[in-house]
Design a protein that fits this description.
The complex is a heterodimer of chains A (401) and B (415). With 401 residues, chain A is mainly β. Chain A is 11% helix and 36% strand. The chains are: A mainly beta (401), B mainly beta (415).
Chain lengths: 401, 415
Amino acid sequence: MTFKPLQANDVVSTRTLLHEAIPLTGTIVSGTYNDENIKNYSHGMFQSVYDYPYLSSSANHIFDLTVGYSTDSALYTATATANGQKAKKKNIYNQMCQVLMGYDATGSILKFDEDGDIIGGGRKMNEVIIMPFSRLLVKDEIKKESFSMTLGVSGSYWDKGKLGKRDPFANAKIKIMDVSASSEYRVNSPVGEYGILYATASVAGANGQQLETNATCVHTASIGGFTYWYAGLLFYQAGIAVLTASLFQENATATTNPGALLKTLAGGPGEHFRFISGSKSGGAGLFKNVNEALTGSAISASCEAFRHRIANVQFNNTTELNSTVYFCRANHNEFNYSSNPTYLSGSKIRVKSQASDDPVAYITTVGLYNDNNELMATAKLSEPLKKSPSTEFTIRTRLDY
Amino acid sequence: MSYYKFKENDLFVNTIEAYPDVKFYIQSGSIYINNQSYISGTTYSGLELVGDNIDGVPRNYISLYQYNINRNQGGLVESTTGRIYPWVVKDSNKTSFKSLTKEQYNTQFNYDGIQITSSYNLSASITRYRITSSQTTRVIPPGTSVKRLNPYYLYTLRNILNHYKYLSPYYAFSNYTGTLADATNPEVNLLTIPSIFYGSSIKKGSVNLRYYISGSLVGQASDIAYDGALVQVSGTTTGSVVGTVLYNEGFILLTSSAQLNPSLIKYEDANPTTSSWCRFGYGSNDGNILSLNASSASFSIEFQGKNHIQTMTMLTKAPIGELNNSNNPTYLKNSAKSLEMNTSGTYEYIETKRILKNIVPADYTDIEPPMQKETYISKIALYDKNRNVIGYAKLATPVRKTEEREFIFKLKLDL
């Protein structure tokens, strides 16, 4: 065994990225487990979604769901004080904005900005659906430009199989993605980087326009020659998706609504989009659109309605693996002898028959020592390396942490 | 809010040694880990089944990550559930998965940013190897792939076993080879326990083996001397050494073929035989097809693992006469104006006086007690050198801090 000090050029630190593909299909979120995997709390401020009935020890928490609105929202004003958890929706919005967007120069809370350009002003998202993903799934961060979510935007979810009306996924779906986020992300958030979520329709019309999305909507951006609809923000390190409630607003023909992302399909205003159903048995007047849900229903009711519209969520996460590589160099004239007891036979070097013979040793292990010559780690070779004065090795030893 | 810097004696790191209990119960080819039952998964029509265990690993095995609970193997289809899987990009860091050989890494993937994928639902379980004199072949013919017979597993333990001779003479490797050569006592029963079950080592003296026939205990062995030798403590041959345990490596070797019970049971042999420690664990991933008759024998393995958990203890101090002011708006009397209300002129700048709320407890409602500065400590924040919050410690109930009081809050963080 011989010690050899590592030089500056022998040590290099690297970082590699391990990813995981995370599919969260709609059947996990609503369907397979008859909502036994959904946990609602007595405070009513959010609901938690698990990948298996949460009473089982096998269940993993996958994400939470909640809604909130700003005091600047018309819906805030429209909500009766004692109704629909008004204060809690406001507090949730403000808290999420404080954490995710931060404050301006006067100390006021910045609101969610639809294009992330805070200095440039622009439109704010005053009513949002918030989806914080579990750290188990997000790990260090969500990989940019890997996020996609498909939402069903037809009918009311309790319609399915009840009144012969619309299945949330039957006619119209929209897909939400962080398009071109690997180069177009924002860094002006206190919790790290975030990207803009854009919506597209699942089916394109004859003129290239999307079927479900409102062509006259003002919340649009053009990327690569295609039109996308602003749908929200995705905070990569925090692992939180913030979606605008305008996703579920329709442009009713009678009262033009340029803020709505959905266009009205056949059936007339109000017929197309029922965000929430007041009763499983259905019936006239029991349905609510997204505005009515936010002003007149509890947070859990909006979460339920949104959750049943999730057809699929897919993203890749990232784990940073830090490594240090130690290049252990065995020159031709080094490490050719061994202090192993079996190296000697009758006080003579076993591998030499006469003094002029070249020595030979086999390298089996590389030990890494600290300044005090204390052994910190060993690296084993899969098979011993034959070392003699005619050979020279650089053994690349990697330490992951 | 005030900042304090940790001093030398305020921070220290300890190691906690934890001993988690582990139990295997083996019966009729099934292994129950820590007495947990298995839950069947959902059946997807036309697709691969999740199987008879929601963990996505075969029964009798533990799942490493416990991801993919009740998920189908199939790809991403909205009507079913795809699985979470890891991947890396092949690049100059040469990061790969252990399941790939060097040849596979070099030949099956290009350097154009190709993804190297792997799969989760990694599993582990105990395995039993019964080594008899009829399997003593130790030479692999060159150039041929001969199935490695069980004795190879024993021979790999030669150095380890001989190393522990200083603890007990029963560890000597010659004891085991002796039994292989001895036609009258030709058996070693090797049980392997993966380290996921015990951590850094098995706790010495904690191993307890129980042998049941038709539900009745016929033999029990444990390491009563803490030296690694398993001594039978109940049953026919009480007091004799029946095997050894390699605590750091996770192996149990049983050598006793003394009869424990006269009932004839169909073990590996062609004919039913009586029970002995060499039959212990029959059916635990040993490749045997169990007969109905063998179901009357069941086995339990109990031990404690050993885990080392580093914890950091931080002593945060609230000294006398300090931390007696709060920036909380409710600290002021509700008639007090905020700081922005001030008067300023060419020669002066006067901030509005602010009146603190007197929260000193009093016995009488109509007499206000003398004013004292008091705060309630509700949480302690930990900052890095750049004053970024890196952690919070919250108190169950706020602690009343007067000018006369001092506190030390002891915070613990598992590393």
